[in-house]
Design goal:
Largest sheet: 5 strands, mixed
Number of helices: 3
Helix content: under 10%
Structural class: mainly beta
Strand content: 25-35%
Distance between the termini: 36 Å
Order of helices and strands: HEEEEEEHHEEE
Radius of gyration: 18 Å
Number of strands: 9
Length: about 180
Amino acid sequence: MTPIRTHSLTPGQTVGPFFHYALPYDGDSELVPRGTPGAVRLHGTVHDGAGAPVPDALLELWQADASGQVVQQAGSLRRDGWTFTGFGRSATDREGHYSFTTLVPGKSAPFFAITVFARGLLHRLVTRAYLPGTSDPFLDGLDADRRSTLLALADASGFRFDVRLQGEDETVFLDFGDE
């Protein structure tokens, strides 16, 4: 009988910093064209554990449409200028800023689901950016000091949502247990 060989696991690789080469595409951060009625800007800065901006991160956004319906429309990688797909992708710039042009999600799903990919991470990070004044079972279940890390702040162009990967005021990230 031949013995069964077992192999040890190989170490994971980090998820970056190659994003700027392969993942961005034309119109990736514009879920709707600028100037669309009801269009808002969701923007912010990604910070590392020391508070420094992260210039080589990539954020993906999923959201419901303005009526609160989860969109099941193909076409996110080829923007046609009128089909809302509920998905976008934005790379950070040298100062760690990202920006999406989108619609406010409807009241039945009043948040933006955000995935963060960045250098040094072994897996993606998933979080939510809730609109001001939102009540949601997940958000309401957090301690008040942690809840604030998931609240987008209204500003002149829409909403600002900063992501802190570690350290003081670290953003709350969701654990799906599958990674």
